[in-house]
Amino acid sequence: MILHDNNYVIHAKNVRKQYGHGASSIDALLGVDLSVEYGQVVSILGPNGAGKTTLIEIIEGLRKSDSGSISILGQDIADLKAVKHLRERIGISPQHSVLPPLLTIEELLTQQATFYDKPQNIDYLITRLGLDDKRHFRIGNLSGGQQQRVTVALALIGDPDLIFLDEPTSQLDPQAKRAVWELLDEQRKHKCISILMTTHQMEEAQQCSDRVVILDGGRVLADDKPSGLIAKYTPSSVLEFVTNMDADLHFLPGETQKVNHIDNTQKVRLITDDPNDYILKLVEMSKKDFFLIRDLRVQNQSLEDVFIQITGREMRS
Ligand SMILES: Nc1ncnc2c1ncn2[C@@H]1O[C@H](COP(=O)(O)OP(=O)(O)OP(=O)(O)O)[C@@H](O)[C@H]1O
To answer: Which segments constitute the ABC transporter domain (predicted)?
Structure first.
């Protein structure tokens, strides 16, 4: 089946993949649908073994699916002739890549740039990825995190329209992660690039994506904007404050948690759909009697909570 859906830069339908045969076979993908609109960043979020790399590499054309149909940039990937000319428009940062250990960063990027008509500026990529002081280092002498940033540079060097990133920041410290995401954001602002990435970092998926696809056991369990997932699966907020031990808290529901502190105060924690109602009441109470309120805060639930809600377990388990 040929898909030419102009709204989607990626359109995958009913993708299936089994590894091996018989009793020891593994169903890695059990009929996955996934679409990415032009200009979107979509994250595939899931625990180890969920099928993320299998899915992204099938879409990239690096692995073969057993069945299903996939189009990228409007071309059916089964049509090898048609997709050949798309190579220049696609950038790939694989999870495991073998880089030439004897070349320096500058030599590798300069060499790769010659494969493209309009490559990006090498100095710009090196600087924005925080690799200035390593540009003349051989790749084999770089740390895992530095090599990972080189892989991101290689994905961007051809100035692609569509980028695939398989766990692009898994080995990076917070500062390097920020550098990668600021660079990708900058690229998005100036060009209409689309990104499909895999991650098992909730925070990254929540902050960086227009949409999150939660994959587990080879199935898509949820697919929505991060805020949409949180609103759908965890509508409640957490209200927390510290108050004196003898504060009159009769207006709070029975399931409110209270933890005593040694300084004669208690931390109160309440899950509620209407934190504002309780905040107004607390303000009112604090005016009447001796009623301390300190460290009052309302926290929205996170994608971590969504994952637990959907799968019944934490990501790391
Ligand atoms: N080449 C392969 N041969 C056999 N089984 C494989 C192969 N590649 C992956 N699998 C199996 O398929 C399932 C999905 O693996 P995949 O690597 O796609 O998951 P993942 O979500 O990317 O995991 P991780 O977060 O650990 O990278 C796993 O059970 C894995 O063991």
So the answer is: 10-242
CATH code, domain carrying 239? 3.30.70
Q: Is residue 313 helix, strand or coil?
A: coil
Domain total of the chain: 2
177 lines ligand 1 (CB under 6 A): no
**pLDDT per position as a tens digit, 121-141:** 999 999 999 999 999 999 999
Domain hosting residue 292, numbered range? 235-301
| C-alpha 150 to ligand 1 mean position (Å) | 24
pLDDT tens-digit readout, 203-237:
888 888 999 999 999 999 999 999 888 888 877 88
**Spatial distance between the Cα atoms of 202 and 302, rounded to a whole number of angstroms:** 8
- Considering the domain architecture, whether residues 167 and 73 belong to the same structural domain is answered as yes
β-pairing, 257-260 with 237-244?
Answer: unpaired
Complex ipTM over 0.90: yes
